[in-house]
Amino acid sequence: MNEDFGMKILYVINQNVLYVGKCWIKCIGGFATILSIFFLFITWDDIGITSLNNKIALVIAIIIILLFWSMLWICFIKRKKVIWQSASGKIIVRYADLLEESFKGGKTERLYVIPVNSAFDTIVDEDISLCDKPLISPYSLHGRWIKKMLEAGKKIEEIDEEIKTCLQRQKKIPCGFLEDKEKGKKEIYDLGTVAMVKGYNKNIFLLLALTNLDENNIAHVSVEKMEEVIRELIYFYDQHGQGHELVIPLMGTNFSRAGLTHNDSLRIIASMFQLYGDRIHGNVSIIIYKGDKDKVTIDI
Questions:
Q1: Over 80: is that where the pLDDT of 193 sits?
Q2: pLDDT, the chain, mean
Q3: Whether 247 contacts 207, CB under 8 Å
């Protein structure tokens, strides 16, 4: 256990080594400036350090301390970073647990993105031994969100009704019908379609159709399609966001099978939102799961 913890720390440091170096250099520059100002009024003799070796040792010690501080700040303390800003909004990358945060509620209403399949299914298969073609994995964000909604007292029928009502209100019509699908919903919608579901607090969940299911109920999406989905989400946010903060997780890394690393996913999402920055009227938070510090850094 301790060995695994130690390895994880090394992975976190490795992910951030470039940014630790940059922070360290800035700290040294700041230290040199402060030292120069300090010695305009005080001499080494005044503080009782006269030996050249002692002077060098003190400076080296402070530089090493600054290195450890930079490492601690970048790798373990720093929680968020603003990567883009305009008069009407900004893009923030931060570490958090999206589900934990979204079910806590807060003073302000936020819009939390939950990637789902294009049928907006709500059946989570907990025991794969009881089904031939499992539908929603309980370990996916989609599956964990449904379980959290049920724990909060919401019924599947209520979630389905809210999805249906929202799609009808947007005049969204199915783009296909899965006749051979044995369970779940058979009508599918265009990738990028968004359905809103209210939580039991001021937050609203935006169910984003990210993936299509194949004949074995395996979700998949290409990188090119994922970029289109993000663009549609941006259009939706522009039209419906009303200045509320949009919170979006990394996508395309696991169950969507786009084959992206966490760093790739972060860069694609961040670059797409920056590309369409004129449509951002509020804060956009790109969430990296707080347990994935060893896989991706917020300093992009």
A1: yes
A2: 90
A3: no
pLDDT at 20: 82
- Written as six digits, the tokens of 66 are 């600054």
Structure tokens of 187? 């009508």
